[in-house]
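Hey, sorry to bother you again with one of my protein questions. A protein chain has come my way and I'm curious about its shape. It would help a lot if you went through both lines with me. I owe you a coffee for this, so here goes:
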Amino acid sequence: MAYSSGFNPHPRISYAGASPTGAASEAEYLEIGLAQEADPGDVLRALDEALPPGLDVLEVVVSPGGSLADLLEASVWRTTVPDLPPETAVSAVRAFLDADEVLVERMTKKGLRTFDSRGAVVSLSASAGTVAGQECAILDLVLRHGTPAVRPDDVLAGLRTMAGLEAVVAPLHERLAQGPLDDETGTVGDPLVLNRDTA
């Protein structure tokens, strides 16, 4: 691995679009600067050997240059909400999507901040699922990345406001994908496609 120069060198690792604390993810990306050229397969094997079980490297590609973060325009999320009845979730989603703006509050390093959770939502739907034998709501969500970053729990807070509900059980947020956003279809692509084709 390459290190920065200077009095206090740091590994040349850049995390792009990291998921919020406490969220599960199947789509995290990072860039690593190497001290010399290496075969991507060898890098993958070395990383897999060094990482703890359950943290798996799926693919390594050579960067063609530019910023990986610029390719990560949106994320696909699935949120399981144990204390939200599916029929309530469907009506809350309808009201949320019909609104021009849904304000929520979140505590940040700079204090309590109010922002719009609706503007970043590309698509949102609700369906029925089960957790431990109990019916629950499953939310499928595509979120556009931006500033401020809207997280799945911000959208859930907006939905709870629309439905007049209080949170009882912690939801499970899982990122399924992140990458370039196709504005016409609302789908999120693979950010490594270009890199893979040129590697």
